[in-house]
Every structure is written in structure tokens, then in C-alpha cells.
Write a structure and sequence with these properties.
With 165 residues, the protein is mainly beta. It has one domain: Immunoglobulin-like. Helices cover 2% and strands 59% of the residues. It has one helix and twelve strands; from the N terminus they run ββββββββββββα. Strands 7-6-11-12-3-4-10 form a seven-stranded mixed β-sheet, with no helix packed on it. A five-stranded antiparallel β-sheet has the order 2-1-5-9-8, with no helix packed on it. A hairpin with a 7-residue loop joins strand 11 and strand 12. The radius of gyration is 17 Å and the shape is globular.
Amino acid sequence: MCMKNVNAIVETYQSVILSTDKTKAIGYNVPFESILATTDKNGLHIAEFSIVTRLNLIGSAIETPLDIKIRLTKHEENPAESRGIDLDRFDVCPIELKEEIHNACIPFLQFQRIVQVPRIDLLRGAGFYVLKILARPKGSEDKYVIQSMAPLLVVENAPQEIIKQ
């Protein structure tokens, strides 16, 4: 069960161009849902890329600080065998972002975070992965809940036409 009134999305890009003061994105280069894995002497890996996490907190959700994780998990037939790697973890504290809270028929806050993900060694090989946005109230010891998911297909030695879709 996800957190009420918290809409979330995560997108992958080859790179993101930031303003000179590094506070705003001014360009998003090459969005993708598939990425090519390469092999070297250290094994199979994917090169660095950027993730953009967007949250829209609506109504009562702007009253609660959130603890957010972005996790990359390989899909396994047996869910108990799934293992993930955390790509990012951050807090969203609406009270600290008062100037960015808008009021239409209800108050809402749009939040965006851009992170450069370094090279990832793929111990579980190529295949179907999922990027998960996990959330819980900040300071809570409760389990994270899945707020949103996005697919990421990791392919090995594929023709470039497949990758650029």
C-alpha cells in the first residue's frame, strides 16, 4: 500500500544538463528504458547515468517529512530471491520548502531531485530490472512502501537499434 497523496515518478537519462548555479535542470539528454551492459576484466556493468525523481505532494501529504529511497532491483521468478541496490536516499521536508508550496483548490508541493548514478557492477547479470521509489515518514522505523516503479531492461551485446528505443 503506498502513501496517500504522494505521487512519484523516476526517469532515467544518459545525462542531465544543469544551470550554471546547479539548481535547475535545463536539459535532459537521451531518456531510456533499456541500457547496454558491458563486460570488462571486473565483470558485467552498466555505465553511469542520471536519475530524475519527481514527487508531487498533495493536501495533507505536505505536512509529513518523507524518507525516500531509489532502489534498482532485478526481477526474479521467486520474489524471495530478488536483491536490490540503493541508488539514492534523501529526505523531503515540506516545512523547509514553504516557498515552493502552491495553493490551488488544495496545497501541493512539486519536488525534483537529480542524481548522477556511478557505474554499477551487475552481480545478477543482464535482464529485467525495476527502479522503485520507496517511501516512509521521516524518522519512522516502519518498512518502506513502494510508491512507484519504472522498468529498466539491461541488455548484453545487443545491436544499438534496440538500445535507442
